[in-house]
Write a structure and sequence with these properties.
504 residues, 12 strands, single chain, eight-stranded mixed sheet
Length: 504
């Protein structure tokens, strides 16, 4: 096979080395206002220096650097606290609560949680312990992008319900995920991936693949795990704004690409070779999942591929098809049914957004109409994460792409190009954000009286209370995306959006 040819410009980059940041550097950013590219913790290509010139650090830049420094300092205690917190939650959960725990201690029936088992849940699982697919007539009536009369991903359940549930379950361990897919969903579990990040020297990326049927499946679903609550490395990836030029594809968030399997952070040609030979026991996310999909499409000749994820998982889901396009994997791209993300941060610049819409969305052997979208990202109210990195500053020129399915509340949905308050810090949205936090807290405390299966526990209510301090943080919970998907009664605005696009 002839070697792939790549466009020029593969060496442009801007990388922030947060491990090199000193506290005095933060003061310098705020007071001295030096050229940002001259700081010792910033690495950039010559072309980037010529383009940005004497660029000064704006306060959002300084805030991001501060958060990166802070996260690097609290990494270990944050991780240890998370392990203790989750163990404690599982200890109480498996023993029937506080009084059950006391009873089991005195009766010799104490259940000791074992991490990695099918009954051991993460903090995300305790915030929302639902694992079954929903079956109710009030759902969004069709899978966005599919014909209204088409078959949904989960038979008689909504098309959006399966992606958000897969995205939520992706936070759990392999045994838990396998049990959920096989027992609760009655589907076919294929494989769980725990993948190596060579830059962080750790297994930072998890995902799993499953099919709706064991034979002649209709759908193959890839679900990436999102940002773990107590993982400082995950949060560092989210708030970092380092980027790497991908030639004509545009600039892409380098941290997300590292999590996906980037091999060289300063040259995308070397960074994304057609194939690699990973170290034994250290699979790389993109390559391992791609090779599994190649086998599955041969086993299921009529199956379509769905890629999904929440938070960081949504970012990886959004970039994954771009690398398939880079490697001209037309057989897989032709099977791509859609990318459905929830609470996804921005992953690239405007050039990348245009490339995804104009090249990737129509790539493959059986392309959709150019007017029909393949990329859908759900945003719940003032969720903080979809609004970073910012898109209106010199060093933060990131853009979203695809249709935004904006949940105004648990009950209202609207399709749009960009969610309101796109950069979070607009002062005119301060009152609405805090009001939304109070409303969500009230709903979380009271909805169980009317809708029993939506009843929330004390942990979930407590997490909602955090939104009274940092509005938008509590809105990032997968629970709100599950609630919104299940309680939205009318998808007419989404349907009209597609109809109007097709009429253009």
């Amino acid at each position: 096979m002839a070697p792939l040819s790549f466009p020029a410009g593969s060496s442009e980059y801007l990388i922030v080395r947060h491990e090199k940041v000193r506290w005095i550097d933060l003061l310098s950013l705020l007071i001295l206002r030096r050229n940002f590219l001259d700081y010792h913790f910033v690495e950039s290509s010559m072309g980037t220096r010529l383009e940005l010139g004497n660029a000064k650090a704006t306060w959002p830049v300084s805030l991001s650097i501060f958060l990166l420094k802070l996260l690097s300092l609290i990494k270990v205690p944050m991780e240890k606290f998370g392990l203790l917190f989750e163990f404690t939650c599982n200890l109480f959960g498996l023993n029937g609560g506080f009084f059950g725990l006391i009873k089991n201690i005195f009766t010799g029936k104490l259940v000791i949680p074992v991490p990695g088992t099918a009954d051991y849940k993460t903090a995300i699982g305790f915030l929302d312990d639902r694992v079954t697919l929903y079956k109710d007539s009030r759902l969004l009536p069709y899978f966005p992008g599919a014909p209204p009369t088409g078959k949904s991903l989960a038979g008689d359940t909504t098309g959006l319900d399966l992606p958000i549930m897969a995205s939520k379950v992706a936070y759990e361990n392999q045994a838990f995920i396998m049990k959920t897919v096989l027992t609760n969903w009655k589907m076919t579990f294929v494989q769980h991936f725990s993948c190596w990040n060579k830059f962080m020297n750790d297994y930072t990326t998890q995902a799993f693949v499953f099919c709706d049927k064991p034979l002649n499946a209709d759908y193959i679903v890839v679900a990436f795990r999102g940002t773990e609550p107590f993982n400082a490395l995950d949060w560092s990836t989210d708030v970092d704004f380092s980027w790497l030029s991908m030639g004509k594809m545009g600039r892409v968030h380098v941290g997300f690409m590292k999590a996906l399997g980037l091999q060289d952070e300063k040259d995308y040609v070397k960074g994304w070779p057609k194939s690699i030979l990973p170290e034994i026991g250290k699979p790389t996310a993109y390559y391992a999942i791609r090779d599994t999909l190649k086998k599955l499409v041969l086993l299921h000749p009529n199956a379509r591929i769905v890629v999904t994820g929440h938070s960081l998982g949504g970012a990886l889901a959004a970039i994954f098809p771009a690398i398939l396009k880079l490697h001209e994997e037309t057989a897989l791209l032709g099977r791509l049914y859609g990318v459905y993300t929830f609470g996804q941060p921005r992953v690239g610049d405007e050039a990348f957004a245009n490339y995804m819409a104009n090249e990737v969305a129509t790539a493959g052997g059986s392309p959709k109409s150019p007017k029909e979208e393949k990329f859908f990202r759900a945003v719940y109210r003032f969720d903080l994460v979809p609004r970073v990195p910012c898109d209106n500053f010199l060093l933060f020129e990131y853009k979203h792409f695809g249709t935004c399915i904006y949940f105004k509340s648990w009950y209202e949905v609207e399709a749009m190009e960009e969610e309101p308050n796109p950069n979070y810090f607009d002062i005119k949205y301060v009152v609405p954000m805090y009001w939304n936090a109070w409303v969500d807290l009230y709903r979380g405390m009271t909805i169980g009286f009317k809708e029993k299966e939506f009843k929330e526990g004390l942990l979930s209510i407590g997490f909602r209370a955090i939104g009274l301090i940092v509005p938008g943080l509590a809105s990032h919970s997968p629970r709100d995306y599950v609630n919104s998907t299940r309680l939205a009664k009318d998808a007419s605005s989404v349907s009209e959006y597609h109809y109007e696009e097709e009429m253009v």
